[in-house]
Design goal:
Layout lengths: L17 H5 L2 H4 L4 H20 L5 E6 L5 E5 L16 H7 L22 H7 L1 E10 L2 E11 L5 E6 L4 E5 L4 E8 L1 H4 L6 H14 L4 E6 L4 E6 L4 H8 L11 E6 L3 E9 L6 E6 L2 E2 L5 H20 L12 H5 L2 E9 L15 H20 L4 H30 L24 E6 L1 H10 L5 E6 L11 H6 L1 H10 L16 E5 L4 H17 L1 H5 L3 E4 L4 E5 L2 E5 L5 H8 L4 E4 L8 H9 L6 E3 L5 H12 L3 H11 L7 H6 L3
Helix pairs in contact: 3-5, 9-11, 9-12, 13-19
């Protein structure tokens, strides 16, 4: 084949905001619901950055009836004067030029969540239209942008309708932005009020004194978030539903030049740690150097306190960090400049200096708090709980060693249970955790044994939310899962030892099946969270119905899909509802649920770690009233039985 000529003319130069529309995933991750909400957070983050640096105190977010959204703050207002080299107003530069903004130095913003100067321009590029009003110096300014396709079929993104102009006088200061996400990018997706509420509440906690008002004009719902206690209030909110071991959180705050640290924590009677860290309002769910610094300093301070107050004798070894962190609910809130996040997801802090700064501030501030007699009772509670945790740790250590000893090919705990795959390639390997022996038998016969392993559950595993780690490890079903995955748990968890790239929970589409899913997800969340964070946990979706007649059949996976499937089948159809996986033979289970080319999987992710913590505590913890309240608020008790409704039409 002749070599294709490759000249300079073949190099495509994308102008303006074209790159954003061509590769939106590079800027917002996805063009699904999460990506569309990301457009909103880029604008909200700009408002938060103003307030975090001392300018203004209120943000109002309004979902309009046409699915546009408005964000208004009372900060300084985006500059409206002409840029000295681009000869455009500051507003136009910010909204039409990638990598342009006031956050590349510390002169205007000491702290900022926006690092790359792409936020506002990306939102503009992916919107059908975007209108910006600036209140500044007693005057009101306006500029509108729109995206359109010209007569030659060329797309123009985020283009100013006309230059900025003054439209009136005002007593206000700040910026108001209204934009409509482009349906060509996001289809018919709608902004979700609950999703926005969750993030807005978190931002209000992290920025003491900030007021965030939410308005949904589609439902006339309003919320106002305002917490004078800041992250101390956040910690108490996260610990709701658990028994607190002392009444108010321990809080400290320290600064070092352009570095600001806040820490608040409280203890409950739970057996795991709940740790949440943020950098410039961004959740760092994978941790980083700031968490490492805090953990090491916290352990040292607590051991020093235990020894100096005779809780530990001279011959006794120091307690471990995991002992001191059992039952802790902690929020670590860092504000700093020149942030270095590892990866594009901004989930792990990489700045080496953050470790040293957090360590020094924690050592100094926490030691001073514990020397105060007012805190002695709290410190005593922490040390005594840690000593109890150390005893449990020793018991758990023996249980873990037992689990490891059984973790060989001859492991009697797996023989007769796990149907292993033949391939040793982890990247292609899948483990199905299947509810019940009947479904497990069908799955074993229907699978592709080259890469699919089957682990049937004989009964419900233990609810890990309510038990100590030694009790968790005493449960046979849990031990079997740990052995099959080969990763260990808790402090010993090692993701590199995972045998399967996909861990798929496969349970019946009924109450018992949902409970088993909840129990397994709770266990993974508490003791194998990296498994979820790294994208290895999935939920398999078996069909709910089969619509069929002579020479026609279709499997249906949700009630919403059923009417369309019936319409496609036409008259004289038959309708079968599957109550459990065991009702399907191996071939049906493969065709509907296990075949990678046809199946439906839901990947389990943690979008909001703090909200996930609350959800697990509410649904799986001991607070019955909180669970009833949640169910009454969110469960649909009026849902119609689609099977009976359609069965009458046969």
């Amino acid at each position: 084949m002749a070599e294709k000529k490759y000249d300079a003319k073949d190099i495509v130069v994308l102008e303006g905001l074209e790159a954003v529309r061509l590769r939106p995933g590079m800027y917002i991750g996805t063009t699904g619901s999460k990506g569309m909400h990301h457009l909103l957070w880029e604008i909200v983050d700009n408002a938060i950055d103003e307030i975090s640096n001392g300018y203004g105190d209120t943000i109002t977010i309004t979902i309009n009836t046409d699915n546009s959204v408005t964000v208004e703050d009372n900060g300084r207002g985006i500059p409206v004067d002409e840029h000295p080299t681009l000869h455009k107003s500051g507003v136009e530069v910010v909204y039409t030029t990638l990598h342009a903004g006031g956050k590349f130095n510390t002169e205007n913003y000491k702290f900022s969540g926006g690092l790359h100067g792409v936020g506002a321009s990306v939102t503009n590029a992916l919107s059908k239209w975007c209108n910006v009003t600036v209140y500044k110096g007693g005057k009101e300014y306006y500029i509108g942008f729109h995206s359109y396709m010209d007569e030659n079929g060329k797309m123009h993104s985020g283009v100013p309708v006309e230059p900025i102009k003054m439209v009136g006088k005002t007593n206000k200061s700040g910026t108001k932005v209204t934009f409509l996400p482009d349906s060509e990018m996001f289809g018919n997706l709608k902004f979700n009020f609950e999703t926005i509420c969750s993030r807005a509440k978190e931002l209000a906690f992290l920025n003491k004194g900030l007021k965030i008002k939410l308005v949904d004009l589609n439902s006339d719902r309003e919320e106002l978030y305002h917490y004078e206690g800041g992250i101390s209030d956040f910690v108490e909110y996260l610990a709701e539903g658990k028994s607190k071991l002392f009444s108010t959180p321990i809080y400290f705050h320290g600064e070092d030049k352009n570095f600001d640290l806040e820490v608040a924590f409280i203890y409950t009677d739970s057996y795991t740690e709940s740790f949440f860290s943020f950098v410039n309002n961004i959740p760092t769910i994978e941790g980083g150097t700031h968490e490492t610094g805090f953990r090491s300093a916290f352990t040292k301070v607590m051991n020093d306190y235990a020894r100096s107050n005779n809780f530990l004798k001279d011959k006794e070894p120091n307690l471990l960090g995991e002992d001191f962190r059992e039952g802790i609910t902690c929020v670590l809130n860092v504000k700093m400049n020149n942030v270095q996040f590892e990866g594009q997801t901004k989930t792990k802090l990489g700045n080496p200096e953050a470790k040293t700064l957090v360590e020094s501030i924690t050592l100094r501030q926490l030691s001073a708090i514990l020397r105060d007699k007012k805190s002695s009772s709290k410190a005593e509670v922490i040390v005594n709980k840690a000593k109890g945790a150390a005893k449990v740790r020793e018991a758990a250590k023996k249980a873990k060693e037992l689990t490891r000893a059984k973790n060989s090919a001859e492991n009697f705990n797996l023989v007769g249970k796990l149907a292993a795959s033949t391939s040793k390639n982890r990247e292609n390997a899948e483990l199905f955790i299947v509810e019940g022996d009947s479904a497990g038998g069908s799955a074993k016969q229907g699978r592709d044994r080259r890469f699919q392993a089957i682990l049937p559950l004989r009964g419900k595993p233990l609810n890990a939310e309510k038990k100590r780690i030694d009790q968790v490890l005493a449960n046979e079903e849990i031990r079997t899962i740990i052995s099959a995955l080969n990763t260990g748990i808790g402090e010993d968890f090692d993701l590199s030892s995972l045998r399967y790239n996909k861990v798929i929970i496969l349970s019946d589409a009924d109450q018992d099946g949902a409970h088993i899913r909840a129990i397994l997800l709770t266990f993974f969340f508490r003791y194998m969270r990296e498994l979820i964070n790294d994208g290895h946990v999935f939920i398999g979706l078996p069909p709910l119905y089969k619509v069929y007649k002579k020479e026609y059949s279709e499997y249906v996976y949700s009630d919403n899909e059923l009417p369309d499937a019936i319409a496609r089948a036409g008259r004289n159809y038959n309708l079968q509802r599957y109550k459990g996986l065991g009702e399907m033979n191996p071939e049906q289970l493969w065709d509907t649920t296990m075949d990678p080319a046809k199946r439906n999987l839901i990947q389990v992710t943690i979008e909001d770690a703090a909200q996930a913590e609350r959800m697990v505590t509410t649904l799986m913890g001991d607070d019955i009233e909180a669970r009833k309240k949640y169910i009454n608020e969110y469960a649909n008790f009026d849902k119609e039985d689609e099977f009976l409704k359609n069965y009458k039409k046969i």
